[in-house]
């Protein structure tokens, strides 16, 4: 049996944009990275080729979320950090049935999945060999200053932000929990 990897860094939504950059930088700096993505892609293949453990999982699916946690627990000894980057960004539909479905998916990805991952994996964070471990929630400037066209997105990112504040109190001092609120980003 292969030995478990210590002090890994889990990055959700690592297959593109904001999640891809830190995953690449962390790998280049020699950190073991678990690159989560919703689906297979050429960028996930490239991260895998650079040494990342890639885990494909739909964060809106309860069974897939449990499987993701089980996969992480079976392959790592400890976690140095969790970066909650996975996201959906879209204009809220004018059709209420579509808007409710959008909102449910966004709450699942931006709030329920981070809650589940933080709660289920906190023991691995406590095993980190460093002085402290980190959880980083990538939220949005819209969490504090919502845009009505993206109201479901803004509300779900605000939930993520509040969740991070709660975990900061719960897991201190061994685990530091921070929020990053990017604005518009050019890719």
Topology (elements, then pairings):
Blueprint: E1 8-11, H1 17-28, E2 33-37, H2 42-49, E3 53-56, H3 62-75, E4 79-84, H4 96-126, E5 133-138, H5 151-171, E6 175-180
Helix pairs in contact: 3-4, 4-5
Summarize the structure.
The protein has 187 residues and is α/β, with parallel strands linked by helices. Helix content is 46%, strand content 17%.
Order of helices and strands: EHEHEHEHEHE
Low-pLDDT sequence parts? none
Gap between N and C termini: 41 Å
**SS element count, helices:** 5
Helix content: 40-55%
Radius of gyration: 16 Å
Order of adjacent strands in the largest pleated sheet: 3-2-1-4-5-6
The rough form would be described as globular
Percent of residues in β-strands: 15-25%
Structural category is: alpha/beta
- Average pLDDT score: 94
Account of the protein in words:
It is a single chain. By secondary structure, this protein is an alpha/beta fold. The protein is built from 5 helices and 6 strands. It has helices spanning 17-28, 42-49, 62-75, 96-126, 151-171, and strands at residues 8-11, 33-37, 53-56, 79-84, 133-138, 175-180. Strand 2 (33-37), helix 2 and strand 3 (53-56) form a beta-alpha-beta unit. The radius of gyration is 16 Å and the shape is globular. The protein starts with 7 loop residues before the first strand and ends in a 7-residue tail after the last strand. The relative contact order is 0.15. The model has no long low-confidence stretch (mean pLDDT 94).
């Amino acid at each position: 049996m292969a030995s478990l990897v210590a002090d890994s860094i889990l990055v959700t939504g690592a297959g593109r944009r904001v999640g891809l950059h830190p995953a690449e930088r962390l790998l280049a700096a020699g950190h073991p990275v678990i690159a989560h993505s919703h689906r297979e892609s050429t960028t996930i293949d490239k991260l895998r080729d650079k040494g990342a453990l890639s885990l494909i999982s739909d964060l809106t699916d309860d069974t897939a979320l449990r499987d993701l946690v089980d996969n992480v627990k079976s392959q790592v000894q400890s976690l140095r950090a969790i970066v909650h980057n996975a996201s959906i960004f879209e204009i809220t539909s004018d059709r209420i049935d579509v808007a409710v479905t959008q909102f449910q998916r966004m709450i699942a990805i931006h709030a329920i999945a981070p809650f589940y991952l933080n709660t289920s994996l906190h023991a691995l964070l406590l095993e980190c060999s460093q002085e402290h471990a980190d959880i980083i929630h990538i939220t949005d400037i819209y969490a504090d200053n919502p845009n009505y066209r993206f109201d479901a997105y803004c509300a779900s990112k605000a939930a993520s932000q509040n969740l991070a504040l709660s975990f900061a109190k719960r897991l201190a001092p061994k685990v530091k929990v921070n929020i990053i609120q990017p604005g518009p980003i050019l890719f």
